[in-house]
Amino acid sequence: MLATIAIWSFLVLFVLNRVYRAGSRESGLPPGPPTLPVLGNTHQIPTKFAYLRFAEWCKQYGGIFSLKLTSQTIIVISCPRLIHDFMDERGGSMVDRPPSRIAEMTTNGVHMALARSGPLWKSLRRTALLLLNREACLQHMPIQQAEATQLMYDLLKQPEDFVEHIERATASIMLSTVFGVRTPRYSDSFASRFSSVQHKWQALLEPGVHLPVDIFSALEYIPERWASWKTISRDVRQQQRKLYYDLMNDCERRIGENRRNGCFLEDVIDQQGMLGLTTDMVAYLGGVCLEGGAGTAAISLQKFVLCISRYPDVQARAQKEIDDFIGFTRLPSIQDIEHLPYAQAVIKEVHRFYPIAPLAVPHFTTVDESIDGYFIPKGSVIFMNVYAVYHSEDSYEQPEVFMPERYLGSEFGTKPGADTTGFRSDFHFGNGRRICPGIHLANNAIIMNIMNLLWGFNFSIADKGSHDSPVPIQPEDFTPTKTVQMQHPAS
Ligand code: HEM
């Protein structure tokens, strides 16, 4: 009897000790904010704008710090030297994504951006790199040019709806370059279906909204009536698959009827056997490119509008450069950008000022690693804080000011004497072997449309009705419809 009580007491104490220690930071990890038993730092991580809190912790604990989400180790890196050394140079051990049961259940694990490393991801990645390289993307320029022209027409007719017009244009660029289907109106079937399912999909993946099934796997067995993510996942899965398959079938039908239009998926279908892709992988590769490109390019353009409305001197200087070089008798073309150093600087500064994915997409370590004397255990989630890199006072003169001039005298826009070890000008596209494969397509869309907008329109901050002062614009408060107005110079 006594022996049984002793064994049970030992087991209970052992379990309690394990639970109590779950949230504590193991020795050897990079420093970080103090933890609470069990929770770790869970209670301190905001669900919105986490990158701002991470940037504060970076100032306090340095370019690499750690957090505990109960027993899960999170590493946040904000120092270009460490990003290069850790994420770019040790690609193999850093190429995985954190497990996501929700993504797995919704997409069958074929969503390239969220897929675990392995043969499936490698085949998808090889295909994307093969067909989205710089030269291949130049073949899609006629459609980009056409969409950019329709965007100007729409803006001229209804400037007050500029947010929607930009969203339509980038959705149409992606739908036509990837699947060969245009979207002349936002209400068109494929675009509105995509927008509807994409909102649900993003909400489903939002951290902290649903039960943390990846940390506590037992939570997966909670019945559906108490686990709404299961219902939402099934709904998204059904709508997403139907949409991506409809788009793929449409493309196959055109190929069969000899009505090719040179879109990305035609090439994928042609080489499907050679590239070792299943039908599921082909449909989802197209869908993931659509997801990766439509929203991001739209947000880049909307943030550009926000920046130049807020900084009229920048707008005037960029417009003068464009007017002097291009004039008024023709539209800008993609080749013009080589001759427009200030416009190039404006584009870089928009990405620096408002990085679209401030924490990029997390990576996951597959082996124990060490860096700068710290131990990084296998299974750690790694975030790169792009926002903190781009807003560091050690690297930039007045980082909170929108100042494209910083890029005229320095490749990375950094201040004189700043340590530029490991610096790149495209941190906003991620890093290592997972770096965004859509860089060239995205850059072409952004460059083409920014040149056109500067060439054709004036932007200013909207007045606040009866109040004298203009509507303030906060970096984290992005509601451009309420804050910006635009007009054609001739109107
Ligand atoms: C301004 C536009 C864009 C930005 C800022 C952007 C940013 C990113 C970032 C930060 C990542 C994660 C990289 C990492 O894990 O280190 C990523 C991945 C990805 N992006 Fe983009 N992206 C853009 C446009 C596009 C476009 C146009 C496409 C498709 C044509 C695309 C397709 C993808 C795909 C498929 C991945 C997953 C790569 C992988 O996991 O191997 N993106 N992007």
Automatic annotation (TrEMBL):
Residues 470-491 are annotated as: Disordered. Gene3D superfamilies: Cytochrome P450. Its cofactor is heme. It is found in: Membrane. Keywords: Heme, Iron, Membrane, Metal-binding, Monooxygenase, Oxidoreductase, Signal, Transmembrane, Transmembrane helix. The keyword Iron applies. Pfam families: p450. Residues 480-491 have a biased composition (Polar residues). Residues 1-24 form the signal peptide. Pathway: Secondary metabolite biosynthesis. Its main location: membrane. Belongs to the cytochrome P450 family. This is Cytochrome P450. It comes from Somion occarium.
